[in-house]
Design a protein that fits this description.
The chain is 33% helix and 18% strand. The chain is α/β, with parallel strands linked by helices and 278 residues long. The protein is globular and about 45 Å long. It starts with 22 loop residues before the first helix and ends with a helix.
Length: 278
Amino acid sequence: MFDPRDPYERYYWHYESRRPLSMAQIIALGSVDAKTAALIWLLLENGSSLTVAGPTDPQPGVGKTTTLNALLQFLPEGTSLAYMAGMYENFAFTNIPDIDPKTTYALCNEVSDHLPIYMWGRVARRYLTLPAKGYHIATSVHADTIDDVMRMYQRTLRVGPEDTRRLGLVVNIGLVGRLYPPRRRWFSTHFIQPNIDPAKPEAVEPLPLSLWNQVDDTFLYADQAILDDLASWIGISSQQFATEVTRRTEFLEETSQGSGLDQEEMFEVVAQFREQQP
């Protein structure tokens, strides 16, 4: 029987979507658009951590797990995943010399107090501070809005401002309409500003990258000042940033035609895309 307390078995500690989808298929379903996914792709490829948030009133099939697994396709080439063992996690992997924090994402099923396989309290707080040691994290939470995510991390779990600024991307998703089957939408995508504002050293500012417009079912994007900040964080020029976003947007538009490429097909074409990078 699997024992999550055994550090040698942590690499088997993973969960799968009931209905696994690729990012191309998610775009084809209208849950998100290609440009929003392209922005996220570029940030993940450059080491951003990730939180996928869904409603606090749990509903089956909202899509947190599906979304998180689909986005893992965009992690940098050569990335290693360290699967967390929920409340049993002892973080022994951080003491293994062969594990490089810069190329390691710590994957947690969920930050909540619902089940022992999830993380909460001091264990979750330690997990959320892993980026201070150079690791990256990817997890999901129950939170309706970006403000709810920040409140959970900063007030409930008492993660300090400096550590919160390292948590990168936050995607809030949910269900819309009363039709069956339900329609899923990515309500908002934010990137937590990693730089300190000297005038407000304790402040943590989530920058809006994409917001769903329910009036016409479209997405509104970040202004140029925010995009310039993202380019600076990655370490490239604003022009190069725009070029890379456009390349990924066009790629995702092509792969999401019809019902979209499946997961295996996406892994293959993403690898080809990376080989063709200038």
